[in-house]
Amino acid sequence: MTRRNDYPVAQTPAAQTGNAKPIWRSLDDKGRASEERARLADAGAEHGPVLSADSLTRGRSSDSAPSTGTHLGRRGFLAASTVTAAAGLLEGCIRRPEEHILPYGEAPEHVVPGVPLHFATVTERLGDAMGLLVTSHEGRPTKVEGNPNHPSTGQGAADVWSQASLMDLYDPDRSTKPARSEGGTLLDAEWTAAEEALQARLASHQGNGGAGLLVLTPPNSSPSFRRARARFLAKFPEAGFHTWGSVTDANMREGAKIAFGRPLNIHHDFRGSRVILSIDSDFMMTEPNALTNSWRFALGRPAFRPNDPMNRLYVVEPGHSLTGSNADHRLRLPSSQIARYLKILAKRLATESDVDLADVASAVSDVSADGIPEAWIEKVAAELLANRRRAVIVAGLRQPPAVHALVHALNRALGNDGATVIFTGVADDDGGSAGAVPQAPSGGETAPPEPYYNTQVSELAAAMGGARTMLILGSNPVYDTPADLGFAEKLGSIEFSLHLGSHRDETAAASTWHLPMAHELESWGDLRSRDGTYAIQQPLIAPLHGGRSALEVLGFAAGDEDPKGHTLVRSTFSEVFARGPRSSEAWRTALHAGVLAGSTRRPEPPRPLDTVAIALAVRATADVPMPTPDALEVAFVPCSKMLDGSRANNVWLQELPDNMSKLVWDNAALVSPATATQLGLSDRDVVRLEADGGAVVEAAVHILPGVADNVVVAPLGWGRHAAGRYGNGQGFDFGPLRTTEALWHRSGVRVTRTGDDWFLVRTQEHGSMHGRPIAIDGTLEEYQETPDFPQYRAVEMDIPPLWDRVDYDGKYKWGMSIDLTACTGCNACVIACQAENNIPSVGKGMVARGREMYWIRLDRYFVGEDENEPQVAFQPIGCQQCEEAPCENVCPVNATAHSPEGLNDMAYNRCIGTRYCANNCPYKVRRFNYLNYHEYLEDPTNARSMDVNIPATRQMSYNPNVTVRMRGVMEKCSYCVQRLQEAKIASRRDDRPIADGTVRAACQETCPTKAIVFGCLNGYPYVVRKGSALVGKTVQEIAREYGLREVRIERETVVPDSEHRVGVQEVDSIEGNDAFLNGQVKYTVYSASLLPQLQSHDRHYKLLVELGAYPRTTFLGRIRNPNSEMV
Amino acid sequence: MSAHEPIAGIGETHLLPPNMTFNDVTEAVARVTENKAPRGWWFLFIGALLFLGVLNAALGYLLATGVGSWGNNSPVAWAWDITNFVWWIGIGHAGTLISAILFLFRQKWRTSINRFAEAMTIFAVMCAGIFPGIHTGRPWFDYYMFPLPNQMSLWPNFKSPLMWDIFAVSTYFTISFLFWFTGLIPDMATLRDRSKTRVRRMVYGAMALGWRGSNRHWRNYERAYLILAAISTPLVLSVHSIVSFDFATSVLPGWHTTIFPPYFVAGAVFSGFALVLTLLVITRQVFQMQEIVTIKHLDLMNKFMLGTGTLVGYAYAMEFFIAWYSGNPYEWHVFRFNRLALTAEGFDGTMWWAYWAMISCNVLVPQIFWFKRMRTSIPVMFVASILINIGMWFERFVIIVTSLHRDFLPSSWGYFSPTLMDILLYLGTFGLFFTCFLLFIRWMPMIAIAEVKMALPAADPHWVPGHGDEGEDQDHAPATEPAPAE
Predict the structure, then answer these.
(1) ipTM for the complex shown
(2) Whole-number pLDDT of residue A366
(3) Smallest Cα–Cα separation from B14: which of B87, B144, B109, B140?
């Protein structure tokens, strides 16, 4: 039964005997009656009992027999007619979406309606694994968080892509059926037909051992996949198996191979490093392990006491990455010059090396230092040398292997190797063994493992020439392979090509078969993180569209008997990771925890540095002349939103403002103000980028301070044309300029204006603070001299409150503190808030009108005199929950009011949308639903329709604990009030005080650097009731028993009708005496909260404090740590 | 036009021609409602109906689509909607000011224009009243703003200036309407008595409320009129003061200003007079009423506009001065960049044009009325009055939009550009206004017949004998004490 039909309307005896028809019955003919009744029953369930004729007769006299029911009294009749008329009117006016009720035929285990479940799983990120904790409401994944047990999450954070993967799962444009290409178009087919076709095709290769058979996959670290690959290759030994990812850490692995003879994963200790030199590495955002890197980086600059040690970050980069924006010193250099910079630095450092770097030194001896500031050589070298074993040099994935190799040499030279830089084996160099046992250092005798991970593009091109059959499992190479490969063309000449993908994308269109791929949240799998930790990927939901995972398809191709994801993963687990009788238990434990305990690899012991190979590689990197306005450099960078473009149809990512440029729904060719002036470009101009060989790309220009001069930064992942309804035609594809030789930067590019304009939209147009004390920052020196320096800028004034101050003693008093020193500006909080609070995306045109709906936004300000060399200040701003909230006074209908806990609450039902509150909000954090945004994006032309037009899959993503707001309603950050209520209920239910850190706002929960702290300003008060398990216990006992950091008990003499608390005293224990039982004494247990300390910290300040609104959110001023000698 | 005789000692001239009789007045006014409408009226009326249609279409679209069809955004959550509201409300000030305050001050020249201005007030307030109702996100819940008993005991928030608005505007409308209608009673009776058809007799008869012109009627009438005038007078000041509280009580720089109440009232009177003048100039031409609405009336109105315009200019200057003098960087920024935008590099800012449009129309244009030639030139005053109304619209736009678009945090700064729906809705309100107004001048005595008669030389006991004796018509003489002399 999918729909509840015959629902008894009124449970009175009269109704049951049928004597009295529900009065509604008379409205309709019999055909519609039952439907109407069902609807009313639903309505009744929400709004109270449904009227029956019986209840109406009571109006006349109570002693008339109600059960006869047929007699309508005068009053009853009047009431009935009124209600009928009102119901008729309401029916006409109120939007009542058509609903289907889907009860469980068979109740699944553990599922309690309304109570969410959490499951651990894992997702792939740039060759790394990222552990997730997914919230599921009645079988629908609704929220993705980081799994704190997993090493890649920086203790439980989740990056924007993990958070937004929900929108990938619920993407309405996902491929739903296999398809066969006929005459260039894809025609729907059945899975059986697809299986047969693939089976037959593979059978034809059986004879020749798979010659002419080619598999292409994106890189991943899944042991099960590797095993399936081995089986496949065993069956088809002649087959080619290639890996391609547009954005990978291939260069890092190659660099390690040069330096140490084998690929290695590199781990940097940013926490223990005093000096960090980033060579074009965006290690906080678009590099592997970014979350843990960010977390450790933040731990390395605590700034809670003026004498805390603080790391110092130097960044050399062409664009303006997130990491660069957090730098203490930043050098803008074209990508092509970065190798030269490193060589010069190496030349300087080699002289004072711990190890013999003579070979390397000779390789870099004749490098010129043109265009590189002296300080960046001398001072940086001095700092690095002064901090031997406590410094780290990190190179980014965009830099060629030689740079990585040279960085390894320098880290070794400075003694950082083994101290701040450690290595672990890569996932694929163990042939699929457990790897829990560290490999013995094997000197030179073991041949380097087959690096299937990073196929050379040239090899792939060669292989495709002779291929007859090609299986593309889960990637979109037509879009993201280098232009010179001519992938689409080569693919077209292959007889049988099969594409497994989530969408019918560019590659699907060029293949002969397309199969829908299951999302990571729909399929079984396993992944090893860079440090080897094994995690099982468990599905949260059955494949929505019947897709299969790459593992399953590969297993099928390898001829597995039961190519089900679960079987494959389970067998890997029991055969490799947990053999023996306790395997099942270990499986369950690993599933539950999200990681397999003990699977983490031990660091590799230091390997001998192959200085000869490094010197050779370094010599081989030719020095490229500096780019000039006539021959610009195009630097391709992974987009901080789209990464490599595979998520292009994700509305959350599309609309997420870019970290630096704040662009939405577009990328752009980013140039520095100086270059723009020189080339006569202005923002939004469309330019033609022409490279040698006829490659041309047209793109809009955006002027971004901080980009290297004569460089065009080209974020990848945009300009898709077969991504889906949201991704198509957004932004610009710089792919045509990207070749095998120029994978990350291309020199000699000419720029000409086409004369066209492009509608570039940003969420923040103004980057200057205009000298106002907004995102307050200072240097470490200032902080040491004047620890409370922010308070001298945001001066708290003695403004008397307008209304009586509320007494929050003994009550929850929620607050938040945001540490601007820790905030890196990574956007994770923005997406987390969007997911938690059902915040709609509104589309580019609406953002252009300033109507984006984010409850928390990341303000980005440029600081400094030179617009080309800015420093950056980030400031996350959500509702500040002012105690004297300006918004509350002006609402004519009391729709926004203060809660007894000091929250500035918003009653959506009451809001009529005068928008006065938004005008009066100094922080402009209130967002108004100008249109029905949840459906607007689906069909902007139909936005005025009263029907709910939201794709069914999208509706599945909603958090049921938060209202979905309609048009005309104001909304804003509520400090995740639904979570507060949940915690309070749990505290009452379990009879225990709330422990600090258990109530977390969504933004706080996902912040990789723990910059956001939420809590109770009083400590968490818990009123002890009669019969509570706390009665009779002392402070120490309560703290110990409930794991609380600090506990305080207040005993209060209760005076009836007294507005103020009287007779309050602190006591050591709760006594269950008569006074307590009779309610004359009240005990309140306070558990400690970190928040009061932060809100009274030297660095704290309140934004716009002079307005006297008493915001509850405070900020901790940002501390920079510049090298005084560099300035 | 006949000569205007100076009154010895005061230097006043008579407003109306000395040889004008009571009958002349009756004829001049009543014939408009009795004769066929002139062709000009029809043209205007059809045009007005078209715009009324636009209004209805725009409202329908708005209700179906939502306020998102306007250009409002974040940070500019109010824009044309509230601009139009304040503008129309401001226009609605002239009527009651002319009727009530000038009545209490015994300014007899008001009699020729007060009816007209009062009607304008009512229609302008109707136009204004549309906006608070429809600018909300969910207009179908507007009733939440009224203190209606409900099961949840939820009351409106009386701290909110928007609540005060609701009461202020509705009170103002009610009183203005009553005042207007009370003034109409004797004239309705006149029209009734002249009726030649049954329908007219019935309709005007009903509206005359049984007026017989008896002494007691006159006595009660005058008392009622005086009381209503006394009630209306503070309302003139209060309504726009309260409307100004919408802004003044907020924290927004550019809004948070104590000068707003008097400044708004002066501005309202200023714009109200300007629109009365615009309409009067056209109407007296179309209906040949130069005898009753003389150039002297127009001259006086222009003086009023000069006065209020200068007051408004003073307010602009003082507001600016205080923004600088207070040392509040946010407020100073709003005035210096959002509005004035005059920097060393020339105009720098995004909305300077609105501020300068306002300054030129409201402060500079009225200065021409220092010259009598300008005050008495119909084309000049017509153009000036239209410019003033444009300027006053910009004043509200400047206050609302330029303050909002760049406030405290530069990260949230934005810009406003109107959509077609903004424009259509605004134009549509002119349709409503002019439809009502044209119906009014066609079917009702657009000039207060009884009151004009009181201002005739014949009604003046101090009249020097020998002038205009033959013009007296005892039948139409007002059966009341003559208006006291100043």
Answers:
(1) 0.89
(2) 85
(3) B109
